[in-house]
Design brief:
The chain is α/β, with parallel strands linked by helices. It is about 40% helix and about 20% strand. The protein has 10 helices and 12 strands. Helix 7 (about 220-230) crosses helix 8 (about 235-260) and helix 8 (about 235-260) crosses helix 9 (about 275-285). The relative contact order is 0.16. The structure holds zinc ion.
Length: about 325
């Protein structure tokens, strides 16, 4: 049987998603299995069994290569996974070895999860046709990834692309990393929700925001907030606008360093759309030095939660072809 299929895996703290693509990048199917945060090999073996019907049955005779995107510090050359807070049993281990233990000896491509997502967008989503593209992923925290001349920028110590920890104000809000004033402290969902709680505590929230917070309690999320903002609540709009302006500062800094074709904004918070992207553009443009670069597109991601698995399958295909 021809080995003509590429498996892309996206490892999250609770579920591991996968996509199976052919040589043209066409997705043949996918799925997900629960993550066992204590054991990478066991999780990947469960995934291998789940994916077997598409991969030609037992032993996966059609599987040519595996790509795996994983949260944390991933060294794509050595296969080592360093710090990865949501996967305590996976970190500081040979991740490439775990893939081989589950699938046998095949070409393996590894990437950080946001790098995987950007690669997916670059090949099949919002970054199609670009050679230089930056992604900022606004989730619980804020992730980042950079492609320069068609190559993911990994860095000397696998630490490149940490856009969420770009410091924008020395005495800004405290970030999960211990620094103050990181982009993440404003534009991640944790930062946004904290800003809302502060307004409530200070008694300056609007009546409709206070009512929403009372009704939703600990379940209050950024989707609730964007619905309220879209309905016209000025205080909630202001919280998104502040996150957007901070994002705009970061975008301008990135454009002044990298001058990319475009910037892709992904992650759950980005679903707030123009509530964030409008103030982001407005703040970024005057801070960008090269006049021609001021018109660069700042666009929403297109592939949603599938992006990292799609990107990992693409990276697997390129690994099998002998690149990277
Ligand atoms: Zn930080």
């Amino acid at each position: 049987m021809t080995k003509d299929l590429y498996l892309g895996i996206d490892t999250g703290g609770t579920a591991v998603k996968y996509e199976i693509a052919d040589i043209d990048g066409l997705t043949l199917g996918g799925g997900e299995v629960p993550t066992d945060p204590s054991n990478a090999t066991r999780t990947l073996q469960a995934l291998a069994a789940d994916a077997a019907p598409i991969l030609g049955g037992a032993g996966w005779p059609r599987l040519a290569a595996v790509g795996l995107a994983c949260a944390g510090i991933v060294n794509p050359v050595t296969g080592w996974l360093g710090r990865s807070p949501n996967l305590p049993g996976w970190e500081n281990r040979d991740l490439g070895g775990a893939v081989t233990a589950a699938f046998g000896s095949l070409p393996v491509a590894l990437a950080n999860d946001v790098n995987g997502a950007l690669y997916g967008e670059y090949r099949y989503g919002a970054g199609r046709g670009c050679r230089n593209v930056v992604m900022i992923a606004l989730g619980t925290g804020v992730g980042g990834a950079v492609i320069v001349h068609g190559e993911l920028l990994v860095g000397v110590h696998s630490g490149a692309g940490e856009i969420g920890h770009m410091v924008l104000q020395d005495d800004g809000p405290l970030c999960t990393c211990g620094s103050r004033g990181c982009l993440e402290a404003w534009a991640g969902s944790t930062g946004l929700l904290r800003a809302v709680r502060r307004l409530l505590a200070d008694g300056v929230a609007s009546p409709s925001l206070a009512e929403l917070a009372r009704r939703r309690g600990a379940a209050l999320n950024t989707r609730d907030l964007s619905e309220l903002a879209e309905a016209g609540d000025a205080v909630t709009r202001g919280v998104f606008a502040e996150a957007g302006r901070r994002l705009g500062q970061a975008v301008a800094n990135l454009v002044n360093v990298l001058d990319p074709d475009r910037i892709i904004i992904g992650g759950g918070v980005a679903l707030a759309g123009d509530l964030i992207l409008g103030p982001c553009r407005e703040r970024a443009v005057p801070l960008i030095l090269a006049t021609e670069a001021r018109s660069l597109p700042i666009v929403p991601a297109e592939l949603g939660p599938r992006a990292a698995a799609v990107g990992a399958a693409s990276l697997a295909r390129e690994k099998a072809r002998g690149g990277r």
